[in-house]
Amino acid sequence: MSIPTLPSVVLVHGGFVDGSGWQGVHELLVADGYRVAVVQNPTVSLEGDVAATKQVLDDLGGPVVLVGHSYGGVVVTEAGTDERVAAIVYIAAFAPDKGESVNTLIADPPPGAPVPPILPPRDGCLFLDRDKFAASFAGDLPPAQAQFMADSQVPWGVGALSGSVTDPAWSSKPSWYLVATDDRMIPPPAQRAMSERAGATVIESPGSHSVYVSRPEAVAELIKTAAAAVTTSD
């Protein structure tokens, strides 16, 4: 009797935060028998973040379900062409096409879309206004947790926003996408447009941009769905 071999899962965070926000998702997946690793992106350049992701792939081998939140979607789109990656999962994430970057994707927001409270660059880095962080990034988290995220922001290098994708992994790998319907950082219409273009299998969930923190069960279930689709038997 053949025994299914579960793929590993690699979780990639976005800008302004670190990998600790994945803890709830990590715990759920590990409890179900998955080997899970969390990438700690420097978020200085796309090239550097792709390199950090591939270091984790080197440790795990394959096959891997590669998961990206927000800017992490750009990272997994670029890194996901690696032969060890079997599937891509986007969580309220950017899913660029060839030649696109965060900068190009946010250049023409949908009419009436909320404007993220990004402060002017300082020493080549971006931050969100701490007083407006909760409303824009973490509106469905407890106030104290959202405040901690605001106060522990990771500088996001302006160079990372201009990093463009050379070969989008979604054009050659199966992909899944979770649209956060209450997102005030990446408008839901933009998420739907990117997921449709990528040919992703899409689910929608109530949730802020921090849906990976606030609704880890929904996120983990989508990841498991992707993993099941690419699971092999020995």
Automatic annotation (TrEMBL):
Stored InterPro entries: AB_hydrolase_1 (IPR000073), AB_hydrolase_fold (IPR029058), Sec-Metab_Biosynth_Hydrolase (IPR052897)
GO molecular function: hydrolase activity
Keywords: Hydrolase
Residues in coiled coil: none
The AB hydrolase-1 domain, residue ranges: 9-221
Name of the protein in its database record: Alpha/beta fold hydrolase
Source organism phylogeny: Bacteria, Bacillati, Actinomycetota, Actinomycetes, Pseudonocardiales
